[in-house]
Amino acid sequence: MPVDLPDFSAFLPEHAARLSDLIRGPEWQAALADESNIARLRESVIAAPDMPDPAGVLVGALKQVNEADVRARIAGGDRDVDALAWRLGEWPDEWTNEPPVLSFVGVYLTLDCNARPKCVYCNQLPVDGCLPMEEWGRLVSELIQGDGQKPYFSYTGGEPLTCGDALYGPEGLIRQAATAGAPSNINTNAFDLTLEVALKIVHAGAARLHVSLDTPDPEVMDELAGGTGRFDLITRGLYNLQVARELLGVNHPVVHINCVLTTRSIFEYPKLVGFLLDRKRVATPGVEGPPRADPHFRDLGIHLIPVGGPQNADIRPTADDYERFFTRTWEAASDVWETYQDARGTEDEARVDYDNYAFFANPYKRVEYRGELRDYCEAVAESTQSTLALGKRCLVAPTQAFFLPDGCQHWCGGHGVSRPEPMGHRSTGSAQGSIASSLSSLRQYPNEFCTGCPVATLFINQGAENALNETVKGWIEEADSPPATPEPPPT
Ligand code: SF4
Question: Cα of 228 to ligand 1 centre, how many Å?
Fold first, then answer.
């Protein structure tokens, strides 16, 4: 049977023409020559599983151990919401119940990278050795538990695509997790996102792909990514992925763009927004309703990552640069978005403002920081902005695990970079066992190792603090509600 080629009509005409040219080119035609291959992939493609709710998982685990005590205090007359929420959020030093459910597992699969020379801002610290991929397969098996725990696995590096089929092939980690109902993500520079790799990633059921792209200016991107032609490799990889999704008839993986803010790219952000909007799907055929109901609504959305690392002082924006960025540049990006909505003829009631569209993208707006914008800008210029958003304790760490290539286990991705003593190792027991037996050491955090606490983690911590407060308020309301009067018996 000949393969039905996608018409790409769900994209803007210019990009549809670009994708059509790509699929008619020799590389894709060679891949399509074996029609049975595409048909077989279509039949056996796995749908990407849903993401877990990290704050929900966290509050559920804490209720397991503390609900009875907090409810007893409420029954005894305690109405101090803050103190009760604090008590509800206390991880015990000794864990006697089932181990806490994990919602996130990050793995640095390798520090090997196909970028030689490296990206100019690369700040990877070396590690001693690298576990074989089979060990990470055992980790995935260990951490997916029947109908219960299905964490979000995120693979990074180095460049994870250098791990090949062991990551994204038919027997690889992504498919292993997706078959068992757990979503996976790959952080990639996309240099090796050939059409063959793109088809395999989609076929395996990857839920997310985070692709590094800082600017739509090819020359600047080549300079930042360490070599001529890299911008073309990245964009070619993105387009291959788009074609692969269309060919296999699925909406996964959702692609997010990791954009590192440096002096070379920071004020080009509105152009990057426009570049990506021109290349995203305008609509998914068959999906009715407002734009945000479309599974591709936030595809090609951007995560902004202020450049870190002591060696990057020469490309780190100043506090004034950041202030300009989070005001005038952000407004200019909003204008690009509004123009895009105008051009699509988006009705008033279906419109979404840019802050909402890009809510996960903006590290300043996604999380609450102490102080004003200027305080944030001064801190971000020093790479200490997380300290303005950290709470008095770390709630989230016991529901996640983070591994370095050598098998060392850390509480989180932030510690994978700042490297305090690891709290476990693959060779010394299960990941959850290491967490359960290390809970007392969690009391020392946040501390100086947490200045790089990732925005996503800060977001979960702040969400969990709010959820604990709301839970306590609900229990107080329940306790204060008069018991329901029984219905009188029918006469
Ligand atoms: S960096 Fe510190 S506060 Fe943030 S998740 Fe890790 S341990 Fe918790």
Answer: 37
Q: Using one digit for the tens of pLDDT, what is the confidence trace for 23-60?
A: 999 988 888 887 778 889 999 999 999 999 998 999 99
- 413-447 tens-digit pLDDT: 999 989 999 999 999 889 999 999 999 999 999 99
Which tokens belong to 69?
């005590």
From the CB of 455, is ligand 1 less than 6 Å away?
no
- What DSSP string describes 196-231? HHHHHHHHHT--EEEEE---S-HHHHHHHTTSTTHH
The answer to whether residue 207 scores a pLDDT higher than 60 is: yes
User: What single string gives the DSSP state of each residue in 409-463?
Assistant: EESSHHHHHH--S-SEEGGGS-HHHHHHHTGGGGGG-SSGGGTT--HHHHHHHHH
Question: Is 10 close to ligand 1, i.e. is its CB under 6 Å away?
Answer: no
Give yes or no for residue 458 CB within 6 A of ligand 1.
Answer: no
Per domain, the residue ranges of the chain are 104-466
104-466 placed in CATH 3.20.20.70: yes
Task: Identify which of 385, 444, 453 to mutate to test ligand 1's pocket (most ligand atoms within 8 A of the CB).
Answer: 453
Round to whole Å and give the CA distance between 210 and 5.
Answer: 26
pLDDT digits (tens, 9 = 90+) for 75-103: 999 999 999 999 999 999 888 777 888 99
459 lines ligand 1 (CB under 6 A): no
Q: Which atom of ligand 1 is nearest to the CA of 413?
A: 6
Q: Tell me the CA–centroid distance for residue 415 and ligand 1, in Å.
A: 7
